[in-house]
Amino acid sequence: MSFDNVSNDVSPGNESRLSIAISALHPNDASQYVRLLVLIINRAVGYNHVEKLKLTAYKDAERYRQKLQRSDALLFVAKSGDRVVGVVDGEIAVDGDTGERHADIHWVGVEQHVQRRRVARALVLTAEASSRGRASSIRTFIKDENTASIALFEGLGYLVDTSSYTNGGRYYMKRL
Length: 176
What we know:
The protein is of the alpha+beta class. The chain has helices at 30-45, 50-55, 57-67, 119-131, 147-155, and strands at 2-5, 18-24, 73-80, 83-94, 101-110, 137-143, 159-160, 169-175. The protein has a single domain, classed as Aminopeptidase. Helix 1 (30-45) packs across helix 3 (57-67). The protein starts with a strand and ends with a strand.
């Protein structure tokens, strides 16, 4: 999947034009994937140990290379040229109670200079498309204060699971 707003240059200060390609995570992109994932997690949870996360990035990049070998992985990147500017991290799982297969999106995010450009939307839609035929639904957990993510997922037709309030957030789900 790719979309184009005329230019390949998405460097800070030149965001008005954007050309993005969405694809499955390639092993060569694992280090960039982890770099961006660290930034996303830091913004989402206010994790103060970014240096510790950076020290484990190489090990995590190797873990993601291994995760790519699993058929249940939902790992996609948004790239502008050779630079990873967005990621979605998820997997197909089996509900232990019902045996129903569902997709879980654990993280989705983009670099700040490409936010509000529909990149996260394209990543979520790619995860959905990859999950069809392998899962009956897709879900994600969103903290109450993350209004941008709530708007994104509600705009894509996700509904709140009203029974799932946990730690200041809720699960949002969509039937596939």
